[in-house]
């Protein structure tokens, strides 16, 4: 891992980004369809990922491929950096590339990281459009096909070999999320809390997988975020995840029985069947677009209240 090109990436950024923006206090990762989060920044400087050594290219629709630096909030403003587009393992990126931007943000001085994503609801109480403040995660290697971004030689001897994750999700930032929702007058059920399950994708869950994840205690499921959280924790950042529910994962109570249908048909009493519901990325992006303004205001309000540390 020592071959990671931090020196090159940081010197390119130092050349392209004005000094007043180069020490961001807060980092933001934009999930699918959520790149408009950067529209509340001013004095924005965008650096395309293809100019930054070590960065991959986001190939997923709804993800741009650049790092935006800018100011947010009143007065002089708070310098922030926004990842407009993330890397997913299913695009073919190794986990070290998936988390490389997070490690760069840490080296720029980011101490507080707000990660956003789109997710499917496993918990039937979570309606589409709900923003879930993540409390914990489930990363099951068999389901993700990946291990862990901190697997292998340690990046630094200063990092713990056995990173604890019982406190991965910052209480300080989660409190700010609920205070922001209150300040913005959001409805009680606009913001919820829950557990995120990480799967590899890019296939959406089968009903059996959905049922398994739900029974394992997950409330929402997605194909990103967990590697970023783990790397950010290793780098010593405070992390919060806002997960926008874009669809419900279909978990039928029972399977359609073709055996029973044929039997009924042969007996002259055919059984009516509702069509199977499926999810699409277009649906995911559409909900992101509908909720872009609320997410943007929430994130801006949280950032304005992050104390300087
Ligand atoms: O997690 P983000 O990047 O928001 O994207 C989510 O949306 C895509 C599926 O529609 C997957 O990549 C899933 O992880």
UniProtKB/TrEMBL annotation:
One of its GO terms (biological process) is nucleoside metabolic process. Phosphate binds at residues 32, 63, 86-88, 118, 224. It holds the Pfam family PNP_UDP_1. The keyword Ribonucleoprotein does not apply. It comes from the Eukaryota. The keyword RNA-binding does not apply. One of its GO terms (molecular function) is purine-nucleoside phosphorylase activity. GO terms for cellular component: cytoplasm. This is Purine nucleoside phosphorylase. Signal peptide: none annotated. A purine D-ribonucleoside binds at residues 205, 247. InterPro entries: Nucleoside_phosphorylase_d, Nucleoside_phosphorylase_sf, Purine_phosphorylase. Pathway: Purine metabolism; purine nucleoside salvage. Residues 25-266 form the Nucleoside phosphorylase domain. Keywords: Glycosyltransferase, Transferase. It is an enzyme of class 2 (transferase). Its EC number is 2.4.2.1. It comes from Cerrena zonata. Belongs to the PNP/MTAP phosphorylase family. The purine nucleoside phosphorylases catalyze the phosphorolytic breakdown of the N-glycosidic bond in the beta-(deoxy)ribonucleoside molecules, with the formation of the corresponding free purine bases and pentose-1-phosphate.
């Amino acid at each position: 891992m020592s071959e990671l090109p931090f020196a090159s990436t940081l010197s390119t950024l130092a050349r392209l980004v004005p000094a007043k923006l180069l020490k961001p206090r807060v980092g933001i990762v934009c999930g699918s369809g959520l790149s408009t989060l950067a529209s509340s920044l001013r004095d924005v400087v965008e650096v395309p990922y293809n100019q930054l050594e070590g960065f991959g290219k986001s190939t997923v629709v709804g993800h741009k491929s650049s790092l935006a630096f800018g100011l947010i909030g009143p007065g002089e403003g708070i310098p922030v950096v926004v990842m407009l587009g993330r890397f997913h393992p299913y695009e073919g990126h190794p986990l070290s590339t998936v988390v490389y931007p997070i490690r760069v943000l840490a080296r720029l001085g980011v101490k507080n990281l707000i990660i956003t994503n789109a997710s499917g609801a496993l918990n039937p109480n979570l309606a589409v459009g709900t923003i879930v403040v993540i409390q914990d995660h489930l990363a099951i290697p068999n389901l993700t096909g990946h291990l862990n971004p901190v697997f292998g030689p340690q990046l630094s001897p200063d990092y713990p070999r056995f990173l604890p994750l019982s406190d991965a999700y910052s209480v300080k930032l989660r409190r700010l999320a609920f205070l922001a929702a209150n300040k913005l007058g959001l409805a009680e059920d606009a913001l919820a809390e829950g557990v995120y399950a990480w799967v590899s994708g890019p296939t959406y869950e089968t009903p059996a997988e959905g049922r398994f994840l739900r029974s394992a205690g997950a409330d929402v499921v997605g194909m990103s975020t967990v590697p970023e959280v783990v790397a950010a924790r290793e780098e010593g950042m405070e992390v919060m995840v806002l997960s926008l529910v874009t669809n419900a994962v279909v978990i039928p109570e029972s399977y359609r029985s073709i055996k029973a249908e044929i039997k009924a048909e042969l007996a002259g009493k055919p059984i009516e069947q509702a069509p199977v519901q499926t999810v699409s990325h277009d649906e995911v992006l559409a909900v992101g677009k509908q909720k872009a303004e609320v997410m943007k205001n929430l994130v801006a309000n949280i950032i304005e209240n992050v104390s300087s540390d």
